[in-house]
Amino acid sequence: MKVPTKPISFGVLLILLATCLPARAQADLPMNGLLPQESAGSTREDELHKDGTDALNESKWDAAASKFNQVAELHGKRVDSALYWKAYALNKGGHRQDALATIAELRKQYPRSTWLKDAGALEVELRQASGQPVNPQAQEDEETKLLALNSLMDSDPKRALPILQKFLSSNNSPRLKAQALFVLAQSDSEEARQSLIQVARGQSNPGLQRKAIEFLATQESPQNLAALGEIYRTSNSHDVRRTVLDAYVACDCRKELLAAAQTEHDPELRRDAIHRLGAAGGQAELRQLYKSAVSVDDKEAIIQGFIAEDDIQGLTEVAKTATEARIKSAAI
Q: Cα dist. 209→16, 21, 176, 272 in Å?
């Protein structure tokens, strides 16, 4: 089965990065998806915040924005939360510019608010939906910066690539670097492809290198296959070479798996290639490989591939022609 090459939508990336809603809101959401009901407030601020929450649960966006605006005007303990939810409600109600203005107000008046990360993600979503350019450098949170980079990659790849390359070479966490590679892999530009290949060839970060190899297999192209073949031939790491073999399975590259099984000198890796050829559905390739196999262990691995593929004809042929008792017995 071929891996689809269509670039992933911005909304899917938002889900992958889990920043569509604030983490705190996600943690507290009940199974019905509604915001948690609050206990009766003892102050005017609490009462208004509860009214805004009720309006959000009922999808009354304008009413919710009005209630949270009243909370913000009180300048109490809930002011930054209220500004975020006001922007959220304004966006849901179709008032994108007002929502952006509210986020700008939150950022200006409360630069240390814990709601800024959520507001940044919402801002990226708003600007993307409005067709406005997003500046990744203006985002302080790394995950929000990745969202902005994805948006910028769609609209201006040449500008996004240097920022993304710098992100990959920085001290960001491995998880965020892997997500950056994911953004890179969605681009159809040749520059993005070469950047991904460069990471896949590198050895300074083995984990990131293997992730890049996996992403190379998600888009079928002669350049990607050539890069995978080069990495397999030149790498001294068994883990890296197995990752390439796994990538061949992902892209349904049976021809490349057959070549690896035919030319590999390391017995363990050669059998790894044989096993993966069976996993990729390479029935015809396994039959071809059996004709040139010399090692009994290799022949047994091929027989296991026949079994996995329910290839009765292949097993029957082995049972009839095998000269080694061990192989004939295994086929029977």
A: 21, 31, 14, 20
Separation between Cα atoms, residue 237 and residue 242, nearest integer Å: 9
Contacts of 271 (CB under 8 A, 6+ apart): 297, 298, 301
* Residue whose C-alpha is closest to residue 212's, from 237, 247, 254: 247
208 neighbors 240 (Cβ within 8 angstroms) = no
CB atoms within 10 A of CB 332: 10
Could you give the CA distance from residue 196 to residue 140 in angstroms, rounded to a whole number? Answer: 25
Determine if residue 7 is left, alpha or beta; phi over 0 gives left, psi from -120 to 50 gives alpha, anything else beta: beta
* pTM confidence score: 0.63
Burial class (CB in 10 A: 0-12, 13-18, 19+), 285: buried
φ/ψ bin of 249: left (φ > 0), alpha (ψ from -120 to 50), beta (otherwise) = alpha
C-alpha distances in Å from residue 125, one per residue of 26, 118, 178: 17, 11, 21
Query: How far, CA to CA in Å, does 180 sit from each of 21, 151, 192, 208, 287?
Result: 21, 12, 12, 10, 41
Spatial neighbors of 328 by CB under 8 A, at least 6 apart, are 318, 319, 322
pLDDT, one tens digit per residue, over 200-239 is 998 778 889 999 999 999 877 889 999 999 999 999 999 9
> Which residue type sits at 250?
A
Q: Are 247 and 214 in contact (CB under 8 A)?
A: yes
Q: State how far the Cα of 136 lies from the Cα of 261, in Å rounded to an integer.
A: 45
